[in-house]
From TrEMBL:
One of its GO terms (cellular component) is cell outer membrane. The keyword Cell inner membrane does not apply. Residues 44-156 form the TonB-dependent receptor plug domain. It comes from Caulobacter vibrioides (strain NA1000 / CB15N). This is TonB-dependent receptor. It is found in: Cell outer membrane. Residues 353-821 form the TonB-dependent receptor-like beta-barrel domain.
Length: 857
């Protein structure tokens, strides 16, 4: 789309809103909204940062229940609940202006920082927060490294929960709806004494999944090895995928004296759901590979040409359908034999060799192919794991003390703990082609000190601060591919320490001009130890170092050289012959200075223009999901983003039209992207990119009772450099458009347009009716870095609407609404695993209706 066309769209939207507002009633103006984007309370219109902010009322009226549901309301923002193969909707995939992260692994940090009451959430697991008793949400766009720190390279999402009130009050609601939805929420303010108050908030939600599991109509399905025969973080299953079952609790205690305010808080979330919905999209068992070919290296089952053999799914099909003679001709007796090794005798599984061609028809097995690709995206033949269990809790304290009328010191202290298990049957079949499960344990502690002040008759405002953060934990991967031909058992340990000092000064030397200067210095140390192992010892079996009974010979003669099998295959740990990750603790140290410089012009009271230059970064780590032996750990480095931005904020037509806009350009270097290398999704610094964009957000009050929110976002995000090694594994082929110079970045639509009218009016009895609609257009998105064709998200228009009635006293209300009213379905996440034989993904929720009863007293 040409530049002239998108410019016409942006200017046309602004002109229509201005014309519509010209005849507005004189008594109604755009609502004021305060934010803390610069660590102090300010009107959002006075902050020289592009911010999409939402009040508590706006969130409830639009049925926004978690962070991901904000995606349609904010330009140049993509938020999805769930990442590839995570199996959990509580994992947040967040991208702002083309920068973010689409993973949950412990070794990968987010690119958009999530904060709750000023406390950073280090993991994407649990970041798709249930928005319980929220006062407002601020989405800050562009690098926020100066005031928010590392891993806010794309932006920051700040969730501010409500503080206890000084008088008793209760507000709650009960909602029922499609897929057996049942939700109850409530919040009570409980004053305790003069200056001392408390609040308690709860939420309970259950909903049946929208993907139904159905039995595959073939008796051979019963002969599949049970998924419980292979290691996993758990063995829970479900009749429907995509269900929810959670409850939340938050308590606060506030004491306010003459000079000091103290707020103590505690929150607890428990999730016990049916796991992320999954749909098998395509199978790739026909792709040739290196296993059991007809041109194998002597003494092995390895075909170096990769043309006459199989990959894992094709190998499974060959093993069950080939005669003993055919298997022997390809030297595949060990590959098709007993799965497992002598090092885990309790995990051995019987041989697959020739079961479909022997004399016993009762042991026949289903092959894996496209027969399991369901014609209905909401039906699945899966029988294995489907669960997401999470406990996420934290305690914190915020202390503010006024040293003078113009100087305040603020302390934010927090401790959080996360326990998470999930499991998903990715292959959509009764077979164990892709059984994935995970177990994460993490804790973090953080301390931030701020000195906030003003001088020169409030013409100069400043914030100085220090920050300490530490987290420690583990992530254990359990992945079974292709009936156990590959069995990944991957324990990982990680520890991070972070220290930072920051400051920002905002000076208004005259009524016309303002200047912003700030910076943050960060020092970080990361420790990591990976323990991945393949419990089937596949490489030993592939290279003639094992027998058909699963007994490997690590010290035996390597067929291709006069060395032992373990040395020849580069297995790194003599004490554990099946371990593929190099033993030992790995260390990386990062240091960074993230500056910001800005200039603002204030030509009128309700008009500000600004220009800013800022930098941000995201720390590096290690690639962990490896299935081939590695003698050393594979690190990846940090990302860096540098952004120029020019924008304006305005209120026009007697404050009946609020119009904000910005243009920006970002140089994005060292991009960490997830690429499929065989069965292993690996992280690399893929290259560099240039991102250009425009945003326009408007709020108009054209008539008494009518408010129109509208936004337009345009992004052009393209690679300017791609590493040769990345091109080798992710270039164009029959399955994918590939990654190369000039290709677009993942999770980055070119256009996003939203229009949200709200009309409220009084009835004769004193009650009120509020009608709301949301229409969002999002252009097509590539869901992964390789740009897999079947995972591409098409351009889509989504419509939500609701009508609410409130009684004359405001004591109760009833809301009837619906989401995705036109039932547009699109993939929110997915994964291409050609080697394993499956491409799978998660579709957006279907059309759903709800009824909510709210009470206040």
């Amino acid at each position: 789309m040409g530049r002239k066309l998108w410019l016409h769209k942006v200017m046309g939207a602004a002109s229509l809103l201005a014309l519509a507002t010209a005849g507005a009633a004189h008594g109604q103006v755009v609502e004021e909204l305060v934010v803390t984007a610069q660590k102090r309370v300010e009107n959002v219109q006075d902050v020289p940062i592009a911010i999409s902010a939402f009040s508590a009322n706006a969130l409830q009226e639009r049925a926004v229940g978690n962070v991901a549901q904000l995606s349609n309301l904010a330009p140049n923002v993509t938020l999805d609940g769930g990442t590839p193969f995570s199996g959990s909707p509580s994992v947040l995939s967040a991208y702002v202006r083309g920068i973010g992260s689409d993973d949950f692994a412990f070794n990968i940090d987010p690119g958009v920082g999530i904060y709750v009451d000023g406390v950073y959430l280090a993991r994407t697991v649990g970041a798709n927060q249930d928005l319980l008793d929220v006062e407002r949400i601020e989405i800050l766009k562009g690098p926020q490294g100066t005031l928010f720190g590392r891993n806010t390279i794309g932006g920051a999402i700040s969730i501010v929960t409500r503080e206890p009130g000084d008088t008793f009050k209760f507000k709650g609601d009960v909602t029922t709806g499609s897929h057996k939805l049942m939700q109850a929420r409530g919040s009570a303010d409980l004053p305790l004494a003069e200056g001392l108050s408390s609040s308690i908030t709860f939420g309970i939600k259950s909903r049946q999944g929208y993907v139904e599991r159905i039995p595959y109509p073939d008796a051979r399905a019963r002969n599949t090895t049970s998924y419980t025969a292979f290691p996993s973080s758990g063995y829970d299953t479900a009749s429907h995928e995509g269900g929810e079952n959670s409850w939340n609790l938050r308590g606060k205690l506030k004491w306010k004296g003459e000079l000091t305010k103290v707020v103590l808080s505690a929150d607890y979330t428990r999730e016990d759901g049916g796991g992320l919905a999954n749909t098998l999209l395509a199978t790739t068992e026909m792709v040739p590979g290196n296993f059991a070919g007809t041109s194998n290296l002597p003494g092995t089952a390895f075909d170096p040409t990769g043309t006459t053999g199989f990959l894992f799914a094709g190998l499974y099909n060959f093993c069950i359908g080939a005669t003993p003679a055919q298997i022997a001709a390809r030297n595949a007796q060990a590959l098709c034999g007993v799965r497992g090794t002598q090092y885990s005798p309790g995990l051995r599984v019987a041989s697959l060799a020739g079961v479909n061609v022997d004399a016993d028809p009762t042991n026949d097995r289903l092959p894996f192919d496209s027969r399991f690709v369901s014609k209905d995206i909401d039906k699945s033949y899966a029988t294995g794991n489907s669960f997401s269990n999470m406990v996420n809790w934290g305690v914190g304290g915020t202390v503010e003390h006024s040293l003078t009328d113009d100087v305040t010191v603020k302390s934010i202290t927090a401790y959080r703990k996360l326990l998470w298990k999930s499991g998903t049957d990715a292959d959509g079949s009764p077979l164990n082609i892709g059984q994935l499960s995970f177990n994460m344990k993490q804790w973090q502690i953080s301390q931030e000190l701020q000195l906030l002040g003003s001088a020169l008759d409030k013409k100069l405002n400043y914030v100085l601060g220090g920050y300490y953060f530490k987290e420690k934990g583990s992530l254990h991967d359990y992945v079974t591919f292709d009936e156990g031909l590959l069995q990944v058992d991957g324990p990982n340990q990680l520890e991070t320490k972070n220290y930072a000092a920051f400051g920002q000064v905002d000076w208004r030397p005259s009524e016309l001009i303002g200047v912003t200067i700030g910076g943050r210095y960060t020092k970080e140390e990361k420790l990591f130890e990976g323990g991945q192992q393949d419990l089937n010892g596949f490489n030993y079996k592939l290279f003639g170092c094992s027998d058909a009974n699963g007994n490997i010979r690590p010290n035996g003669a390597f067929p291709l050289a006069p060395i032992s099998c373990q040395v020849g295959l580069s297995y790194p740990d003599p004490s554990n012959p099946v371990r593929v990750y190099a033993p030992g603790v790995n260390k990386q140290t990062f240091s960074n200075f993230s500056p910001k410089v800005g200039v603002q012009l204030h030509p009128a009271d309700d008009l500000m223009t600004y220009v800013s230059w800022s930098k941000g970064y995201k720390t590096g780590g290690w690639t962990t999901r490896l299935t081939n032996p590695q003698l050393t750990a594979q690190p990846f480095g940090e990302e860096v983003a540098t952004t120029w931005e020019a924008g304006f904020k305005s209120k026009l037509l007697d404050r009946r039209l609020q119009l904000n806009g910005s243009v920006f350009q970002t140089e994005y270097d060292g991009i960490q992207l997830n690429f499929q290398q065989g069965t292993s999704p690996t992280i690399r610094n893929a290259g560099d990119a240039k991102i250009k964009g425009v945003e326009l957000e408007a709020v108009a009050v054209p008539l008494e009772g009518l408010t129109i929110n509208a936004s337009v976002g345009y992004l052009r995000a393209r690679y300017t450099d791609v590493l040769a090694g990345v091109l080798a594994v992710s270039g164009p082929n029959v399955f994918q458009a590939g990654t190369f110079v000039g290709a677009p970045l993942p999770k980055t639509p070119e256009w996003k347009i939203n229009l949200s009218p709200r009309y409220a009016f009084k009835l004769a009895n004193g009650g009120s009716v509020t009608a709301i609609a949301d229409w969002t257009y999002t252009s097509s998105i590539w869901n992964n870095a390789q740009r897999t064709y079947v995972l591409k998200r098409p351009a889509v228009q989504v419509v939500n609407a609701s009508v609410a009635y409130a009684d004359p006293d405001g004591a109760w209300s009833v809301t009837v609404g619906g989401t995705n009213l036109t039932d547009k379905r699109y993939l929110t996440t997915g994964n291409e695993n050609i080697a394993a034989g499956a491409v799978f993904g998660t579709y957006s929720r279907p059309r759903e209706a709800y009824v909510r009863l709210g009470v206040t007293f």
